[in-house]
Design brief:
Elements lengths: L14 E4 L5 H12 L3 E6 L2 H13 L4 E5 L5 H15 L4 E4 L15 H28 L3 E6 L12 H21 L4 E8 L5 H6 L4 H10 L8 H12 L10 E4 L7
Parallel strand pairs: 1-2, 1-4, 2-3, 4-5, 5-6, 6-7
Length: 259
């Protein structure tokens, strides 16, 4: 619980790390988090895009820093965390957002390397970030980790097995880690979005407006999420407003999984 009369969404003095922060949901989380007063370090692989975005956010008075880092590269993950602690003294929040969709194929038709790539980015990347951030977070007295899973971490869809498997595993990893860290003041939760209006969704729909209209109808609220809908949930899970919430999956899906 946050002290009565205080705003739990003021994060001045806090340091947040966001992976895959150059587009879609990650980009919305970086902006929303920085607007709370936190200093936000975000990673991604596209250096020019990352730097341009940082310049634009800094021109709005926000405190952000881009670091080129691939979540599947352990040395790069270690360097990202080391550099963040050296420059800013601490890590309070980690939002593991970097993710990769699967090309639609039935299991018998999936190449091993394609399966492994989807597992590597979504699952191994989340594992590596937590493995290396947790000691720094413990040293700083605790914090919160938010893993961006998916409703496909709870229910399945045909022809997307690597993604469905990876997101189910992210939820297992989240719950398991939450138990390990519960006594160390680090809360670990997941957000499970329904379809979100990002490049990833449009890639999976092959830019089809017709598919977009159909996907909207699958969500009882009659629309898909905007990246900001997911950012709000991530902020709540980092804030003291969710001080007794750990090991949970928050569905932000307009009712999809209630059906
Ligand atoms: N868009 C949706 O409908 C939807 C639904 C549920 C969950 N999600 C999840 O939300 C997260 C964000 O997805 P999005 O929709 O914003 O997609 P996106 O493709 O716009 O963003 C994904 C980001 O991750 C980055 N990334 C990919 N591989 C990386 C790597 N190896 N290292 C570092 N960064 C890497 C990409 O460059 C990109 O910036 C993902 O985990 C995704 O699985 C998306």
């Amino acid at each position: 619980m946050h002290p009565p009369g205080t705003n739990p969404f003021l994060f001045s003095g806090k340091v947040a790390l966001v992976t895959g922060g150059t587009s879609g949901i990650g980009k919305a989380i970086v902006a929303a988090m920085a607007k709370t007063g936190a200093l936000v370090v975000y990673s991604g692989r596209r250096a020019e895009l990352g730097e341009d975005q940082a310049k634009s956010l800094r021109s709005e008075g926000l405190r952000v820093e881009y670091v080129q880092s691939d979540v599947t590269d352990e040395a790069a993950v270690k360097a990202l965390i080391k550099q963040t602690v050296e420059r800013h003294g601490r890590i309070d929040f980690v939002i593991n957002n970097a993710g990769l969709e699967a090309d639609p194929h039935p299991v018998y038709d999936i190449k091993l390397e394609d399966f492994q790539q989807v597992i590597n980015v979504n699952l191994t990347g989340t594992f590596l970030m937590m493995k290396h951030a947790i000691p720094a977070m413990r040293a700083g007295g605790g914090g919160a980790i938010v893993n961006i899973a998916s409703i496909l971490g709870e229910v399945a869809m045909p022809n997307l097995a690597p993604y469905v498997a990876a997101k189910h595993a992210v939820i297992g990893l989240t719950k398991s880690t939450s138990l390990e860290e519960a006594g160390h003041k680090i809360r670990v939760n997941a957000v499970a979005p329904g379809a979100v209006n990002t490049d990833m969704l449009w890639r999976t729909m092959h830019d089809s407006e017709e598919a977009f209209e159909h996907i909207k109808t699958l969500h009882p609220m009659g629309r898909v999420a905007e990246p900001e809908d997911i950012a709000e949930a991530a902020l709540w899970l980092c804030s003291e407003a969710s001080a007794f919430v750990t090991g949970q999956v928050i569905n932000v899906d307009g009712g999809y999984t209630a059906q």
